[in-house]
Amino acid sequence: MNIVRHNPHGRLLCDAVEYNGLVFLGGQVPRDLSQDIKGQTADVLQQIDALLAKAGSHKSKIISANVWLADMRHREAMNEVWSNWVDANNLPCRATVEAKLADPRMLVEIACIAAK
Amino acid sequence: MNIVRHNPHGRLLCDAVEYNGLVFLGGQVPRDLSQDIKGQTADVLQQIDALLAKAGSHKSKIISANVWLADMRHREAMNEVWSNWVDANNLPCRATVEAKLADPRMLVEIACIAAK
Amino acid sequence: MNIVRHNPHGRLLCDAVEYNGLVFLGGQVPRDLSQDIKGQTADVLQQIDALLAKAGSHKSKIISANVWLADMRHREAMNEVWSNWVDANNLPCRATVEAKLADPRMLVEIACIAAK
Questions:
Q1: Which of B61, B83, B93 is nearest residue C15 as measured by Cβ atoms?
Q2: Most distant CA atoms of chain A, gap in Å
Q3: Which of A15, A45, C44, C71 is most exposed, with the fewest beta carbons within 10 Å of its own?
Q4: Which burial class, exposed, middle or buried, applies to B10 when counting CB atoms under 10 A from its CB (0-12, 13-18, 19+)?
Q5: Number of other residues whose CB lies within 10 A of the CB of residue B36
Q6: Is residue B4 part of a domain?
Q7: Contacts of C91 in chain A (CB under 8 A)
Q8: What is the 3 state secondary structure string of chain A?
Q9: Cα(B13)–Cα(B15) distance, rounded to whole angstroms?
Q10: Does B41 map to a domain?
Q11: What is the total count of domains within chain C?
Q12: B30 vs A42, A74, B106, C67, C111, CA distance in Å?
């Protein structure tokens, strides 16, 4: 079984790894840190869509997700964007906790595991 | 290979997902937030038992767990309840870190991956 | 399919679990807490090397990693040690967030999933 790796960043990490019918996505973070929580969440989910497509998967095949919020008070607004994005007939399981992220302006980070 | 999803909550997430011999449980949280860390941990583990049963698995088949504690000083008390619950002959690997959770009264959240 | 568990600790958890071509490592923490972030990161990565070897895997087969830093300001120093350790041709995906760990002197914890 092959391990397929997508989008290497320097000598540090890559964005997505395929192995044995599973696709693992590392913690995706917003590109535009000037946006509010809704904009940053949409930005992250857009990147997840692109990575899943690249790895031959799709949001309807997400199994499990981890959401880290810089401020738990943003949960409702994040959930609103998430709910409109996620496949209502194929809901993943999820854990959502608060954590300080790499940049103080960064409000949300999402990692997930999907089926191919 | 089919993806089987259990207990959808609104348009948001589900509690457990089966895929390819693995069972993924999202972050389970206590139902009764008036309890102390021991009561909340027992509550969460009871829910994990029920979800694993529903997905055709069992605590003796847990592979990996993530424990988030709202206050790391509760680690010993959580571990006491965990130790009495976990299958001593089939210990999972685990990561335990502190994180603020969805409700200020919520003291513990646990996610895990099990074999079927 | 067998579940193989390595290094049980009391009635609590084990260090690594093999199942169906995957190796799961729990959150590995430094042994020598007197060291700075670079020393602690090197210590954790050394333990990961040993566990992966025991489970018939290798750092070149890591799929996904979770890094928790007690202080996000240590990210650059942790990344320096990580970059020199990780297999540059086989980069895993990763999520890195801040979290208080089990001991106030503990600066880094790393969990990962690898292929066999």
A1: B93
A2: 43
A3: C71
A4: exposed
A5: 10
A6: no
A7: 5, 8-9, 11-14
A8: CCEEEEEEECCCEEEEEEECCEEEEEEECCCCCCCCHHHHHHHHHHHHHHHHHHCCCCHHHEEEEEEEECCHHHHHHHHHHHHHHCCCCCCCEEEEEECCCCCCCCCEEEEEEEEC
A9: 7
A10: yes
A11: 1
A12: 29, 21, 7, 26, 25
Token pair belonging to C74: 């240590």
Q: State the number of CA atoms in the 13 A half-sphere of C78 facing the CB.
A: 24
CB contact under 8 A, B17 and A93: yes
Rounded to two decimals, the ipTM of the complex is 0.97
Q: What is the pLDDT of residues A47-86, one digit of tens each?
A: 999 999 999 999 999 999 999 999 999 999 999 999 999 9
> What CATH number does the domain containing A45 carry?
3.30.1330.40
pLDDT digits (tens, 9 = 90+) for C54-92: 999 999 999 999 999 999 999 999 999 999 999 999 999
Closest partner residue to C11 among B72, B75, B83, by Cβ?
A: B83
Q: Take residue A32 and report the two structure tokens written for it.
A: 């535009």
